[in-house]
Design goal:
The protein is α+β, with helices and mostly antiparallel strands. It contains 21 helices and 12 strands.
Length: 646
């Protein structure tokens, strides 16, 4: 953003003359240009400090408020999606800034809780149906939604199903036991007694047998847009927490070793300084385990499993003299095929270099005084996972591109161990009440958040939320006419004017309305990735040669075909005069891909046909001088983005 010396001097002068006066503040209104993919017709957002709020349409048909860090947002849209951002700074008072920022935050937290409750209802319904109908799997959602986090570090999928008749009876130590787990069990027994684990197991077993579904009352109104729904403990969460705790005890008693795919051994040697750090971390993990196993937290079992896994990794690192880490990728991580890895060799090599640099940097941090914390170790674990996963691609293997977690969550589906002792009548009654509540909640969510291209989209909801924030402290009069009159007054006083959500549903139009009605002090165009790189090339090379070479996907040095993009020939975002001509070629390319898609449909499930159709839709506006598609960059470096921003 541009620094205004004049504005700064004026504020300094006002502060000197009126020392008690409050300094003005500002928020930013963002307009993102159209592009292929999400929000293809353009997008809008609002920024308070380093937090950006924007509404996004989800597959559920509902629109949700999202909150993102400023850098994360700009990297996603300006770099990966290659979209210019137009930013207007709106001057407001400090009190108005705080009111708007706090209201958006409250709205985000309230809606997050509302959708969390909907997810809890889904899990409860799935579990009740399974218990009622005695089937191993009801539909395709069950095994994906109800899982035991952390248990997959020690057991493979379905390993525990065959033990349903044995567990929790007569647990024995096997021949493939882990001495490290045995050591941890002895520490627990020394601290809490020889029979502590068996008593804890009996207590959990009793809790499971007596576990009953929660009562979900359905009042006249479950939620409102600015209120949290009632907090009710999920029946499914309680059940999975209990089973995870039993699995943790089973690991301790049986001295179960880690699964082969739960960890990886690197070729990176542990230095003498790092050895001291790891020895200290090992003691921290042991102490943390002793606290977790006694904890009253519902999710104590998952914490114990992660602690044990990391303890083993640290012990192995010390014994082997090489770094060993737990695999922390999520089950649903995104994968890159070997072909994609080779096609995107240059940007992926930058990713590898970045991952290596991050890994080395964190290794330096942890050996500094005060650098050893479990949080820093989590960062080291994540950076190691990312770096060594990338290196697998050089061995002609598919790699996971995204999905690292701060805590390893390798999970398994629910085993058929212990079931709550509920009658069919109890289960039927609970399921009926639950479904009634779920339907009521879905109706209210649809009432508040049902997406509509014209009347409820990413733009209209921003302005409606602004209006609600301005009236958030007015609880005296609910007369709609008086509320509308008060809103106009508040908006003019605080923002400089009024903007109707009903007439500003197009992102570009809304941006113009902000210019005309709000107290806009400055406007900035933040260039997209390709635009930034073009500026660098123009500064160093012949402009005509650069323009010709970079005008198309075949000779461009700045763009390699991304399979997520529909095929096209010419870039038109920086070629206004030739845009219709280039649009003809791009439309022809889309038609060609569609025709090929008809032939390849049996082999690619219609992927090429869909991409070709999208290409035609993205190219037709170019015939009328309007640009939408800009090409995306899936594998750009976040470190490079931060460097370019500086």
């Amino acid at each position: 953003m541009r620094f205004s010396l004049k504005s700064f001097l004026i504020r300094l002068l006002l502060l000197a003359i009126f020392p008690g006066a409050a300094l003005a503040a500002s928020f930013e209104y963002l307009y993102l240009e159209a592009s292929e993919g999400n929000s293809s017709g353009g997008h809008s957002a609002i920024q308070f400090g380093d937090e950006i709020y924007h509404y996004q349409h989800h597959d559920s048909g509902l629109i949700r408020l999202l909150r993102q860090d400023k850098q994360e947002f700009h990297f996603l849209y300006r770099f990966l999606q290659n979209r210019r951002i137009h930013l207007s700074r709106v001057e407001v008072s400090e009190e108005t800034f705080n009111r708007l920022g706090e209201y958006f935050k409250w709205q985000f937290l309230a809606q997050d809780q509302q959708f969390k409750q909907l997810n809890d209802l889904l899990k409860d319904c799935l579990l009740l149906r399974r218990l009622l109908y005695k089937q191993p799997d009801i539909g395709t959602d069950f095994s994906a939604v109800l899982r035991l986090n952390g248990v997959g570090l020690f057991y493979a999928e379905h390993d525990l199903d065959s033990q349903k008749d044995e567990y929790p009876k007569n647990i024995k130590v096997g021949s493939q036991s882990s001495p490290f787990i045995g050591l941890l069990r002895k520490k627990i027994e020394a601290q809490y007694g020889q029979d502590y684990l068996s008593k804890r197991r009996e207590q959990i077993t009793a809790n499971i047998k007596t576990l009953t579904p929660n009562h979900w009352p359905a009042p006249t109104s479950i939620l409102s847009k600015d209120n949290f729904p009632p907090v009710i403990n999920s029946f499914a969460d309680s059940y999975t927490d209990y089973l995870t705790g039993l699995a943790a005890i089973k690991v301790l008693v049986e001295e179960q070793p880690l699964q082969a795919d739960a960890f990886f051994v690197t070729q990176e040697s542990v230095t003498p300084e790092e050895k001291k750090i790891l020895e200290a971390l090992r003691e921290q993990l042991a102490l943390s385990l002793l606290k977790s196993v006694k904890s009253g937290r519902p999710d104590w079992g998952a914490a114990v499993l992660v602690n044990m896994a990391r303890y083993i990794a640290v012990e192995q690192s010390l014994q082997l003299g090489r770094w060993v880490f737990i695999d922390d990728f999520a089950v649903d991580s995104e994968w890159i095929s070997t072909d994609q890895f080779m096609e995107q060799a240059e940007p992926i090599q930058t990713q590898i270099d970045d991952a290596q640099a991050n890994f080395k940097q964190i290794r330096k941090v942890i050996i500094n005084p005060g650098g050893l914390t479990e949080s820093n170790y989590s960062q080291l674990e994540m950076s190691a996972n990312r770096y060594f996963e990338w290196l697998k691609g050089k061995q002609q293997k598919a790699v996971r591109y995204q999905g690292e977690k701060a805590l390893p969550t390798k999970s398994i589906s629910l085993p058929d161990w212990l079931m709550p002792e509920l009658s069919s009548q109890q289960l039927t009654s609970a399921l009926t009440g639950l479904e009634h509540y779920e339907n009521k909640l879905l109706q209210e969510l649809a009432q508040h958040y049902q997406y509509n291209l014209l009347t409820r989209n990413c733009v209209t909801e921003l302005f409606r939320t602004l209006d609600q924030a301005l009236l958030s402290q007015n609880t005296v009069d609910n007369d709609p006419a008086k509320q509308a009159e008060l809103l106009i007054k508040e908006s003019r006083q605080r923002l400089g004017g009024t903007i109707s959500a009903a007439y500003n549903f197009i992102p570009f139009v809304s941006f113009q309305s902000v210019q005309e009605n709000y107290k806009v002090s400055s406007n900035t165009v933040l260039n997209a990735y390709r635009g930034q790189q073009l500026e660098k090339l123009y500064a160093k090379n012949n402009g005509l040669m650069v323009a010709l070479r970079e005008s198309n996907v075949f000779s461009s040095t700045l763009y390699s075909y991304n399979p997520d993009d529909a095929f096209f020939v010419f870039f038109t975002d920086d070629s206004l005069a030739l845009r219709p001509v280039f649009g003809v070629f791009n439309t022809a390319a889309g038609i060609g891909q569609s025709l090929f898609g008809f032939l390849s449909w049996p082999f690619d499930s219609g992927k090429n046909l869909k991409a070709g159709t999208t290409g035609i839709l993205m190219s037709l506006p170019e015939l009328l001088f309007f640009n939408m598609r800009k090409g995306s960059y899936k594998y750009l470096s976040y470190n490079q983005f931060v460097k370019d921003e500086r």
